[in-house]
Specification:
Length: about 550
């Protein structure tokens, strides 16, 4: 049965990009009906609204910090070329086809009170859920106006951060990541029933972090709207909250942030000059290879591969061919600004006879090489070509032909093939969506064969929404009768900060469970800032590490 959705909606020219994306996805979904948009009658008079807002902020003593931070926001939007409201006539035309009603709740402080007549007017639509994009804090009978209440984002983890502005305090407090809470509203501010949570890596810029988190959180909502179709949504009461309620920063805190922001700008300009003039390389990856099990290794004893100055190497995959061991890896050329796939022989833990095997106009990485039914295949990352590509080896090691493609128009990253004990084939992959980090969502699909003619999505996709564990970090492998999935830890604003080794406990089309057994960070060498890949292959392994600079 089609689910009826209502939205407490902004005026169309104030809708943010991620909100427009949500509306668009709902409209496209044949099992969802965007029944009504509920708009604020008071916002029609913009001048009056702006005047009242300025008057209110002046009373709070925050008017100067508001002005300073608004100017800073405008500057950051320009620096990062962020368009907050890309509304156009075509989108406006679509929105106007949806039923609209106007309401004018009474405001007391930061709370909106809806009258009984307004609540009854909304109740007549018999909505399954009401989404909140607009209005202040909402309490009263309006909270029960739909079958599943009002769903709202809090762009912060409400276990540690309530209040606002979103994504600001995580940067000022030097948090490792930024959380998002999707909640069913109750009378308690940011303390409603938790529907789901996501975790995302932060950027050093407040506005850029906000964009990444907002755009990435679209998938969090859509996942749970999908659950709503089968009435499978769970509501969990928020726990005890003992941190402060965050508010808009004072002028002193605002100035502190501005100093921090422009210090980062200066550091980045210095690094760029240093790279061009003195050939210093920042965040440069290289490979480590060793015998034995990664889980029992002493990493500081393993030698790192010495690289050519104009390249970094990452994402190593091992393969045996005619009693000789080879390694495939991403070979990133700084001069071209993209990666290609190279291959070399392994002798005495050194790489020799290196040849290029795949070089395209677009970036290539993560050359997942594996044997399947006596043939050799590769699934490289080809997200810049907006599809998944599988290659078959025609002449080892460097002749490969395109075998199959899928996910046309999507940016697929770091794809793994896994065959379970029943012989079923699964793809574990990540996706890079508009302005998302590509590191926070793990998707699983069951496939019929490597021809990819039949692809079935997991019921709970994305099965993980967490930059601390979602992104694949090498092929799935078996160890001591456990099925293990390496994954990246993306935190502290660093890509590939560390590695997880996760045990897959349950894998069906309806359920996925894993637990983290081990974590690994690059603490064994002070010159390093990351480690983000592992291929455990028989009695040896290959991993990669990232130098802060070289």
């Amino acid at each position: 049965m089609m689910k009826k959705i209502g939205i407490l909606c902004k005026q169309f020219n104030n809708l943010r990009n991620f909100e427009l994306r949500i509306i668009n996805e709902i409209i496209k979904d044949q099992d969802l009906d965007l029944t009504v948009l509920i708009l604020d009658e008071r916002k029609k008079n913009k001048k009056n609204t702006v005047f009242k807002k300025l008057k209110r902020e002046n009373k709070k003593g925050k008017i100067f910090s508001k002005i300073v931070m608004k100017i800073q926001e405008i500057i950051e939007l320009q620096i990062f070329n962020i368009k907050t409201n890309p509304i156009n006539s075509e989108k406006t035309k679509i929105l106007k086809t949806i039923k609209q009603i106007y309401v004018s709740p009474e405001t007391k402080g930061n709370v909106d009170f809806f009258s009984k007549s307004e609540t009854d007017k909304i109740r007549e639509f018999e909505l399954d859920v009401l989404l909140r994009f607009e209005f202040n804090i909402i309490i009263g009978d309006i909270l029960d106006v739909s079958k599943n209440g009002i769903w709202s984002f809090h762009h912060g983890d409400n276990r540690y951060n309530r209040g606002g502005p979103s994504c600001f305090w995580e940067i000022m407090n030097k948090e490792k990541n930024i959380g998002v809470t999707l909640q069913k509203l109750t009378q308690e501010l940011d303390g409603g029933f938790v529907i789901d949570r996501g975790t995302y890596n932060k950027h050093w810029s407040w506005i850029k972090s906000r964009q990444i988190v907002q755009e990435s959180s679209v998938r969090l909502l859509l996942k749970n709207l999908n659950k709503l179709k089968s009435d499978n949504v769970e509501y969990i009461k928020s726990g005890n909250y003992y941190y402060e309620l965050y508010k808009f920063p004072s002028l002193f805190i605002s100035i502190r942030y501005i100093i921090y922001f422009y210090s980062n700008i200066i550091i980045r300009i210095f690094k760029r000059i240093n790279s061009k003039i003195f050939d210093v390389r920042y965040a440069s990856w290289t490979i480590m290879i060793s015998k034995g099990s990664f889980l029992n290794s002493v990493l500081h004893k393993i030698k790192k591969i010495k690289l050519p100055k104009n390249e970094f190497w990452a994402d190593p995959f091992l393969i045996n061919y005619e009693n000789q061991q080879y390694i495939y890896f991403e070979n990133y050329e700084y001069s071209k600004g993209k990666g290609k796939i190279s291959c070399g022989k392994l002798e005495n833990e050194k790489i020799i006879d290196i040849v290029d095997v795949l070089d395209k106009p677009y970036h290539l990485s993560y050359p997942n090489v594996f044997k399947f039914k006596n043939d050799l295949y590769m699934i490289p990352e080809t997200h810049q070509n907006f599809r998944l590509e599988i290659y078959k080896c025609t002449s080892f090691p460097n002749d490969w032909e395109l075998y199959s493609t899928a996910f046309e128009g999507e940016q697929i990253v770091d794809c793994n093939l896994h065959q379970d004990e029943l012989g079923k084939l699964w793809l574990f992959l990540n996706k890079k969506e508009l302005n998302s980090d590509g590191c926070s969502d793990l998707y699983i699909y069951q496939i019929d064969s490597l021809k990819l003619e039949k692809i079935i999505s997991h019921q709970e996709n994305p099965v993980i929404i967490n930059s601390l564990s979602a992104r694949n970090a090498g092929p799935i492998f078996k160890h001591e009768n456990k099925i293990l999935r390496p994954s990246q830890i993306n935190s502290e604003g660093i890509y590939g900060r560390g590695l997880n080794i996760n045990q897959i406990e349950t894998l069906t089309l309806n359920e996925y469970k894993e637990k983290t057994l081990h974590k690994c960070f690059p603490y064994f060498d002070r010159k390093l800032q990351g480690i983000h890949h592992l291929h455990q292959f028989e009695d040896c392994f290959a991993t990669d590490v990232c130098y802060k600079k070289r």
